[in-house]
Amino acid sequence: MKLLPSTLLLPALLATSARSADYTIVQQPFFTAHTFAATALPAEVSLIRLPAKAWADFEILQLAPHGSKVAAGDILLKFDAEDIDKKLADARRAFTASELNLAQAELDTKSLKATTPLALDALRRTALQAKEELAYFTKVRRKATEESAGQSLIRAQENLENAQEELRQLAKMYDADDLTEETEEIILVRQKSAVARAEFGLRMEQLDCDRTLKVKLPREAEALTAADKEATLALAAAEEELPRKLKLQDIGLATARITFAREKETLAKLESDRKLFELKAPAAGWFYYGTIEDGRWTTGELLKGIVVNGKAPVKRPFATFIPATAKLGLTAFVEEAVSRVLTPETTGTATLTGREDLELPVKLLATSPTPGTDGRYRADLNLTWPEGITVTPGATAEISLVSYQQAQAIAVPTKALTQTATGWTVEVKLADGKSEQRAVKRGRVSKDLTEILSGLEAGQVILTP
Q1: Are 372 and 264 within one domain?
Q2: pLDDT in tens, 282-297
Q3: One domain for residues 18 and 166
Q4: pTM, two decimal places
């Protein structure tokens, strides 16, 4: 179709007339047909993926063939589990250790919380008693001990003086006799011994008094003063240290709980992942490499690792299980222009690749209202597959749908239409052999023909390039 400015229309008409051919308008059947490729895909599929939570190394040991028909319980994929079994053993040991550590931390925390107040009370009592002992010693006991030592020395001195005086009296009394009797001699000996003992006692008391005043009491004063200071310092340190130790114990307990929870979670994830190392068919059906989703069967680079000794991807689907009960339909992706004219219940035919002799009736079920990322619109079709022909998922077919048809219509070659500023026109040949531009209303377009809704009649002749 040509678009010409209206100011250039006359020269263009003269030039066109020189090289145009006649086309006589007749009423004829008119329809628009759309042909596109479709793929046989099941309505029900199960995508196979490895939703591993902790493990990423899935080396394939056993793999069912692509497109194989499987029974319920058949192994689809089996992976090498040697490394994960070692990791599981390590994780179980770590979990047991963290469980024991948590129990011990809880016990230690409980014990520390119970004993910390008791320890602080004991230190407070010790500090108070040390201060009281020092104060009592300084104010009372030191002076009393000094006085007691002095009194003991005085008593020893008095004992000596008494013993000496008694000896003098005995000697004086016995000296008055001319003859000292044996009994008197014995008494004198005993009294002399008593004097000697008193003299010794006095010396000992003097030593003990000197020791008490010069050594014992000063040392005791130093010891009590030091004990008071030590008890005060110990209490101050404990009042700062024990609450901090209790906080650290609480932090340690919280850490032990976090470690236990993480070890438990790690073990649970590994045990869950271990169940993925043998995938079985949930029912009878087919096993396909690649994914069948959103109306497309996707293979590509992802499938290069789906071989024995290859590595299966984690979390991304890489294979498909198709239940035997799943019904196959046809799915296509069409251009926007085709999507606009197709409506549900539109009918047509499907031709299987390789069996062009069979034309199967199909019906359009629905088209997507929005395009995919490639700009195409999904179209789902329904048909009844013929008996005796095996159609597997992924098979291709050519679809032909008639979106519009008229039993009798006026249609002209599309190239005969010219677009002007006021609309579409065709060049009509007049009875005198001349021609003129005639405005027309354009309808549908089918390949090289365009439907004319008004402006032309059967029997008229138009000029075409």
Answers
A1: no
A2: 999 999 999 988 888 8
A3: no
A4: 0.66
